[in-house]
Amino acid sequence: MVALCCLLVVASCSDKGASEQPPNVILIISDQWSTKVADGSGNYDNGIQTPAIDHLAASGIRFTQSYSTYPLCTPARASLFTGLYSHNNDVGFNLARDSILDQAEAFTTLGKSFKEAGYNVAYFGKEHAGGYGYASASEFGSMTHSDGGMLAEGSAYDPIFTDDAVDYVSNQKGDKPFFMTLSLINPHDICRVLGGKVQGATFADAIHFARTDDEPYLRFQPRPDLPENHNITYEKGMILHEDFMYKEVFGLNEDEWKRFIATYQLLIENTDRLIGQLLATVEAQGIDDNTIILFTTDHGEMAGSHKLIAKTTFYEESAKTPVIIKYPKLIQPKSINERALVGTIDVMPTLLDLAGIAVPEGLDGRSFKSEIISPETTETNFDVLFSQNQFGRMVRFGQFKYVRSIVYGVTYEVLYDLKNDPLESENLSNNKAFNDTLNKGRKHLDDWLAVADTPLVTRN
Asked: Which segments of 217-285 does DSSP mark as H helices, in order?
């Protein structure tokens, strides 16, 4: 019935005027974008420039307390396109694109929901969501690519994906609304800067950049400083400390860390530039007012915080994600929501709700449309958020973060006060003054684990 109603709305556009056509929807996804490096605020002291997402945020709303449902590529993306936690969509770790493709077509997905509502559905770029992202898309541009992360793949392929998206928007005739995803690989190429080898080469061999102290950095500016919490040792239980990627970086000197961060910032700036090309095309086509644009990422990047790299952990650098939305018909420019705890699973129901399409039943995620319309209200229904990885679970509530994990057979608890300790330097789980808060975090998590049926298990 929902699809029929939306089809009737689309069909009647020629009678009622184009202004009443359902909105177009553009979802832009980056990979491994840290909000600690660039969040759309434009208030950076690290020299980075991201005019595209800054402009997008100034034209709409920016959420500052948004998190990845599972800070790893495939499970995060599968949750984004299904509105389900990984234990409910059967994507619990990184998977190849075709691993559950048939199953993905049987699920209710973001693309399928828009298609059934009468939308054209297109997907350009990295999928890596077990097939859930591609589901119901009928246009894929000049190439498809799902995995990403080897030698400069994002730097090579992202411009192609963007050109395809720009051409798609430029050639829309306006007879039907469209839902389009532009999924960029970068700044994920940072994964191969240090030890990743492709026939003896690293990504640093592909980009000769900031290799020595006296080599000029981007725009001849000083190299970015190390994160404030660079020398704060990671907490046991927050990472799988025997993992190869952490062993790769143990012992790096300050110069090597600054090269890493400088390269990461370059990848972010390049990605922002491509996003800007798409945003400019939307404006040039005159469809800006009737187009919903949402920018987010699957997870962040540690980028030297606690002397760590990559993702998966529940540290803010890894677990937080940018969520920036523009829709001139509904969203006031320069809006900021600093209170609502929204997650990856909430993107699907929110986009559907904003477009006026009924949200499917049975989703784990919820629409935060009300938080978009009234970002400064004192009350919120998004006051608790859960996330998971292969060895732990996290709950965010109030100004606190509680993590429970099992690492190499040992159970850990971590409690951080993010308001008074934004660098996550002190684990309060053994501080008696915070016993009540600790017990509150435990109860939140225990209640969720019981309902979600996703228990912690020992992993080697």
From this structure: 244-249, 254-284
